[in-house]
Amino acid sequence: MSNSRPIGVFDSGIGGLTVVRALQTRLPHENIVYFGDTARVPYGPKSAQVVREYAAQDTDILLEHNVKLIVIACNTVSAVGLDVVQKRAKVPVVGVIFPGAEAAVRASHKKRIGVIGTVGTVNSQAYVHAIRQLDPNAQVFSQACPLFVPLAEEGWTDRKATELIAREYLFPLTLEKIDTLVLGCTHYPILRSVIDTVLQKSVTLIDSGEAAALTVEETLAEQGLRNESTLKANVQFFVSDIPHKFAEVGERFFGRKLGRVHRVAGISA
Ligand code: DGL
Questions:
Q1: pLDDT, tens digit, 9 for 90 and up, residues 87-99
Q2: Where in the sequence is the domain holding 201, given as residue range(s)?
């Protein structure tokens, strides 16, 4: 089978575009098919059982595109549904939790690591388990930051209100004297600068999407799946609700225009 087959990436909605961006920076010649479940976003506050059902359906959508590898861009799905996707797909699957945990353990000197994410991700303790598996002596402090998702989508990256909210969320982590913080949600890289300001630029920030892009690069190389073509990659976008808002907000997450966005039929909230 041809290595020009696309990498499939899925997310609960728009946030996974930060992961596509990281993938494109690292692997500019890989074709990508992206599915964002905009009809059912957000996944963060939903039960693990529901998120696992959605994850199975999202996987099937990507498999229809003959993908060679699946990236679960959504931290919430990676936290509670990695096994669902692995069982369904006969191709390698990369979630964002383990790569993010690995990068954090590598970066942290004091082994005092903070993790921020959705309620679902934090409650699952997936990052805590992954970090402790890598370093049993590491101390992990988690904080759900649900308001960060709408703030990032609104583009409120340099508003006073966002800074105040970030201070509230991050204060308990500063008391724990963390030296490294995992941005454990697709949306948080958009708020990186405000998070950095609130933490007085003294904490190393780990983008779980960037960490996952490195794992994807390694996995493709190991499995002989790299696309050797030097042609410009083709990136296709699919969503489950009307594409209008996705295209508009998505530009901010992706860093450039998205082009055509297709709607997938048959999924409703
Ligand atoms: N994509 C989700 C995540 O990374 C954030 C948005 C949502 O709650 O669906 O956890």
A1: 999 999 999 999 9
A2: 97-208
